[in-house]
Amino acid sequence: MIIETLSWGKLEVDKEQLYHFPKGIPGFDEETDFVLIMMTETPFWYLQSVKSKGLSFLLGDPFAFYPTYEFELPDAEAEELEIRSDVDVRCIITLKENVEQSTINLLAPIVLNPEELKGKQVVLHKAPYHTKHSLFQEQPVIDGKDGG
């Protein structure tokens, strides 16, 4: 399958990279099909919309930056994603011009079922996380400053 991207132009992808987000991603409800593109030998991925070449998200492995990161996936979310065993968790990263100010959203991880190729951004309502944790220290970033 060939998709068009803003960053890489036309890109050939395998069907195993195509994830369906039945309810879209919050703020992008109409976007339901994304390709997961691995950046080799890094803890980063791109989640690229199949429909809109200008819509992509930089994702990171939260456990690479926050080894103690954990949450319990609500049963309803696990059922919706048809999770039986395998599950991948990625979080959206916001890159800043000064890379040291870049953040990762630990409050609303992207949960992926690699068996069924389904995904969902899950908002953790009872978790001690924020939308803007620094990539480089275990503290949230509040208004562009280190929080604490």
Automatic annotation (TrEMBL):
BP-aspect Gene Ontology terms: bacterial-type flagellum assembly; regulation of translation
Location(s) in or outside the cell: Cytoplasm
Pfam families: FliW (PF02623)
Keywords linked to the UniProt accession: Bacterial flagellum biogenesis, Cell projection, Chaperone, Cilium, Cytoplasm, Flagellum, Translation regulation
GO CC annotation terms, alphabetical: cytoplasm
InterPro entries assigned to the protein according to its UniProt record, in alphabetical order: Flagellar_assembly_factor_FliW (IPR003775), Flagellar_assmbl_FliW_dom_sf (IPR024046)
Family annotation (SUPFAM superfamilies): BH3618-like
Subunit description: Interacts with translational regulator CsrA and flagellin(s).
Family that this chain belongs to: Belongs to the FliW family.
Its biological purpose: Acts as an anti-CsrA protein, binds CsrA and prevents it from repressing translation of its target genes, one of which is flagellin. Binds to flagellin and participates in the assembly of the flagellum.
Protein name: Flagellar assembly factor FliW
